[in-house]
């Protein structure tokens, strides 16, 4: 445990008013030396979940099951006021716990309706409830906060968090930007349901994930209420505020809601019209769509040079082309429903979504995935020698640093790993593996070892050792394609 936690433990002891004494906790105390005394049976939750790239992201000691966000934004003043109410289950006896939040001003924190003490250090908001929280107890923490959320610059130089657009803002959170606009357990390993209500001046719209449950205008302001019933990692939460052309329809049974910046409307229309077709094809290849709503957000954010697979409603920083649409929709299965256990497993997102583009081509009269693989291997697929070489810089399952999580090896070599698996196991087993992987970890988390073990189990007698050693974990360009 880091020293900051120890300090909080001792502070928690000195402010304890009503000691909670139970036989079981006394027993736990006897085991956890140094954490006991003054009747305290809980210990502080950790300030991170030891992600290899973002050690302070997320917090340990509890599991969030639901986020209720009530937000109001004034675009003129660039001022956000919010109340975040988290429902969580304690995974151990807790005397204190952390949330992640960068910037903003915290005004009040309550736990179970009672005012709690709190302090801040960097991205850690440490909350000390009046009484300890027992292991397995479900508790509710509410944080009232306000301010102008920050734009976060990633280790790779890209921008996320709270981003100004031509007519409002756009919130994006991969990998850590969501802590700029709401406090939470900001690591992909803790997924939760969300209800997000956002009030904006009349005439503007607030678009987020999931189903639109309400839209009410009163006294010159409109509140939009969004519901995400299926578990979502916080990096996949989004919020777009601005002027949008809205289209509401259905893709099969699914409510389909698209919001498009008027400046991008004409260019977006033909490709967004293909969402139902992309969904039907994806379901055939990957299995049932994992969520109860779909759509897209097309915004004009000069600061954002990438699309993001925000859950149920991917964000595009301008009109997408078809391959990008296919890519972001494939992420709904690979990334959003089956979410990486840590940021090291990023290739499970990007390798699969890139492979989906290859497969789309194969199924629509273009190059086969094997042909694409060959062209990527030879370098013919790329415009420059530099781009052809870049993909061999590191193994997809082991990016050297946080600044390289979205680099070409994660995408291209990640997809190549899947083609290598296909070569070894054959088409029928391979397509069953794509579907089975999505089904087996639906709405959950998985890591690279889970994937290799699953493939081995699905392909008894097949030798995959070389695929893992050379393509997934190996340095440099494998000698044979
Ligand atoms: N994950 C996004 C996608 O592939 C892309 C992305 C998000 C990205 N953040 C990034 C790419 C930062 C480069 C840099 O759909
Ligand atoms: Zn992607």
Structure description:
- The structure is a single chain.
- The protein is of the alpha+beta class and 481 residues long.
- The chain folds into 2 domains: 43-338, Immunoglobulin-like (Sandwich); 341-472, Neutral Protease Domain 2 (Neutral Protease, domain 2, Orthogonal Bundle).
- Helix content is 29%, strand content 29%.
- The chain contains 12 helices and 23 strands.
- It has helices at 3-15, 23-31, 265-272, 275-286, 322-333, 347-363, 369-378, 385-390, 408-425, 427-440, 448-458, 465-472; strands spanning 43-44, 62-74, 79-90, 94-100, 105-111, 114-115, 117-121, 124-128, 138-147, 151-153, 159-164, 169-172, 192-201, 205-208, 211-218, 221-232, 239-242, 245-251, 254-260, 294-298, 315-316, 338-340, 444-446.
- The strands form 5 sheets. The chain has an 8-stranded mixed beta sheet with strand order 6-5-9-3-2-13-16-15, with no helix packed on it. Strands 10-11-12-17-14 form a 5-stranded antiparallel beta sheet, with no helix packed on it.
- Strand 18 (245-251) and strand 19 (254-260) form a beta hairpin.
- The longest helix is centred in the C-terminal third of the chain and has 18 residues, at 408-425.
- It is globular and about 65 Å long.
- The protein binds tryptophan and zinc ion.
């Amino acid at each position: 445990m880091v020293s900051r936690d120890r300090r909080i433990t001792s502070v928690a002891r000195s402010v304890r008013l009503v000691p909670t004494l139970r036989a079981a906790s006394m027993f736990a105390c006897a085991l956890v030396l140094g954490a006991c005394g003054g009747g305290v049976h809980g210990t502080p939750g950790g300030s991170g979940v030891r992600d290899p790239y973002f050690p302070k992201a997320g917090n340990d000691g509890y599991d969030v099951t639901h986020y209720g966000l009530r937000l109001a934004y004034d675009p003129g003043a660039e001022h956000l006021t919010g109340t975040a109410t988290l429902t969580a289950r304690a995974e151990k006896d807790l005397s204190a716990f952390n949330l992640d939040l960068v910037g903003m001003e915290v005004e009040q924190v309550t736990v179970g309706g009672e005012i709690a003490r709190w302090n801040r250090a960097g991205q850690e908001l440490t909350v000390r409830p009046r009484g300890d929280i027992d292991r397995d107890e479900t508790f509710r923490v509410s944080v009232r906060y306000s301010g102008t959320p920050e734009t976060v610059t990633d280790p790779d130089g890209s921008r996320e968090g709270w981003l100004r657009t031509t007519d409002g803002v756009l919130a994006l959170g991969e990998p850590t930007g969501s802590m700029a606009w709401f406090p939470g357990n900001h690591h992909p390993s803790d997924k939760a349901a969300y209800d997000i209500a956002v009030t904006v001046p009349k005439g503007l719209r607030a678009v987020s994930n999931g189903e639109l449950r309400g839209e009410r205008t009163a006294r010159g302001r409109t509140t939009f209420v969004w519901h995400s019933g299926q578990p979502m990692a916080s990096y996949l939460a989004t919020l777009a505020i601005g002027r949008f052309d809205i289209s509401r329809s259905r893709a099969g049974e699914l409510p389909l809601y698209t919001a498009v910046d008027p400046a991008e409307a004409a260019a977006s229309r033909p490709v967004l019209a293909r969402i139902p077709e992309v969904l039907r094809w994806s379901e055939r290849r990957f299995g049932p769509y994992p969520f109860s709503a779909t759509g897209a957000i097309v915004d004009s954010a000069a600061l954002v040079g990438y699309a993001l697979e925000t859950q149920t409603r991917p964000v595009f920083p301008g009109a997408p082309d078809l391959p990008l649409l296919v890519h972001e929709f494939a992420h709904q299965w690979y990334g959003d429903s089956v979410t990486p256990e840590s940021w090291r497993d990023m290739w499970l997102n990007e390798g699969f979504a890139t492979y989906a583009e290859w497969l789309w081509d194969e199924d629509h009269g273009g190059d086969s995935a094997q042909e694409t693989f060959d062209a990527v291997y030879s370098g013919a697929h790329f415009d420059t020698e530099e781009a052809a070489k870049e993909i061999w810089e590191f193994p997809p399952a082991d990016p050297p640093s946080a600044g390289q999580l979205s680099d070409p090896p994660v995408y291209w070599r990640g997809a190549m790993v899947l083609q290598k698996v296909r070569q070894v196991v054959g088409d029928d087993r391979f397509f069953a593996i794509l579907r089975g992987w999505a089904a087996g970890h639906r709405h959950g988390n998985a890591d690279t070892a889970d994937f290799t073990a699953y493939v081995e189990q699905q392909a008894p007698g097949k030798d995959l050792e070389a695929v893992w050693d050379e393509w997934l974990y190996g340095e440099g360009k494998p000698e044979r394609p």
